[in-house]
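Hello again,

I reread your note about wanting to compare the complex against the isolated chains. To keep things tidy I'm splitting this into two emails, and this first one only covers the full assembly. Below are the input lines as submitted, including protein chains and any nucleic acid or small-molecule components. They are followed by the predicted structure of everything together. The single-chain runs will come separately.
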Amino acid sequence: MLQRRLWWFAILAFLPTLAIFAWVRIYPIGETLRLSLHKWDILSKNKPFIGLDNFRELFHDRLFLDALVNTSIIAFGVLAVTIPLALVIAGLIHHRTASRFSGFYETAVFIPHVVSLVPAAMAWKWIFDAKLGPLNALLQYFGIPAQAWLFDPVLSVICIIVLCSWQALGYAVLIYLVGFKSLPVSLFEAAKLDGAGGIQRFWHVAVPLLKPITLYVSVVTLISGFNVYAQAFVLASDSQGAPGRQVRVLVLDMLENSFRNYRVGYAASEAVVLLAIVLVLTLIQFGLLREKGRK
Amino acid sequence: MTAVSATEHVSVSAAEKIPTRERLVNLAIDIFLFAFSILMILPLVFLVSNAFKSPQELLAWPPTVIPTDPTVENFRAVLADTPLARWIFNSLAFAVLSTLSIVATSAISGYVLAKFPFRTLKIIFVIVLATAIVPFEVYMIPLYFQAQALGILNSIGGLLLGYLVMSFGIFLIRQNVMHSIPDELLEAARIDGAGELWIFWSIVLPLLRGALGALAVLAFFQAWTAFAWPMIVATTRESYTIEVGLALFQTGFTVDLGRLSAASATVLIPSITLFVILRRNFVQSVASTGLKE
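Full-complex prediction:
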């Protein structure tokens, strides 16, 4: 009797959420998968099934390949900057937990992660600005010629990496700090007694113990790197002022195909590629974690 | 060697047992961290300061942190040129409603998933978690057509459609219920004849206050900083969120950095203030995302 009553409560209480979930998550995810196998150009009424043709076309599409390469460079670039820097900064902040400034360090490093993307990107747009920006002024002060940071295809990718790393760092530092706090103190005491210096303790004790956290932060950073859009949109305007053209990224290419070229099915197949990348990264993470658990 | 002798010398007073060398190292670390922290917030400091500068002063080298001749001309120009207040209102309404929806759905379903051990629910929970891996960008195009079919493009309802639920929120509350609410408590209430709804409302919810607060902060900032979804759903000037409005405004006035800074500062100052006030909640909720075990 009670069991029955509980069952009904559980179902009725959960149903609204489940309905919303099915409607705004599961259905559109299914639609993305389905549309990717169809040719649908908004204007035309019928959506013929075309199998994997969209994907075949994708891998001969210069714009898409460009976007894929740019996005990968940005994602891995951000990873390469963020992880080592976050480890060191978190280690140092943890070391100075007793300092009266530790709250300030944490807040200052974390603020770029929470401020809205666009205003923050605006600040960097000024820094990188070729004529007005302080970066070029600084370079010239040291006798280095000014660069067109945001108009050069290579330099503008670097600018986006700098901006994204600046934002990603706070999150990574925060997670590492939680990690540092959970490390067993006794191990450090032992290493200290054995005569290990601060740097040795960091490198030989903390870094190996923090591996699962490094793995987690790396995957999160990579995934958000592959979804980069706003940063490229604001920073990389081309010389006519059209946003995002200079550095084509996956999400931008996808939205252009869908809403400018009206090729929804084609855009959906790009979304599926993005999903595949994310799934592979997640599976790698789970695989590595399990391997570690088995040892 | 010097470190050892210094230790002996200082150890006279128990409070200052830290060797001089270590103290010097700590000082160096503090100086480095201090400089690094300043460097991290410097772009934002300059953004706010640029908002108050005249066009001539913007060109000055080295850039001044405190404007020598502060002016509100940039703010006046931005408010005259754009419906900035409207954009901020849209963002606020969107973020608040999204937060309410996420907190409500997460609270009830997190509780049900944690305390009602039915097989069907477990399977559903796995599906819910699995969708958390799929980035929003992957399914936003079909979702756009759903919003179009409902006729809610260019409205707050349309914005909301993408931000009604959060898989992570359900997960977070479920973990919290499992760890902080003992089964005995619920059973005792049932024996006393309490209804299920009453148990949820009067026993479970109050115990979840901390976790729900953390989730609320996370949900609010998630909607407040959303970009790709508002970008495609809100396409009329009146329906922009502040993020979209600013991003498109900058393409119109590529060169006018003073005005851009003023518009950005108007958005930044309240959100940074809010963050500093809610820092503990925020840090707690973000940190718990890294502790999925």
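For quick reference: Residues 20-51 of chain B form the longest helix (32 residues).

B.
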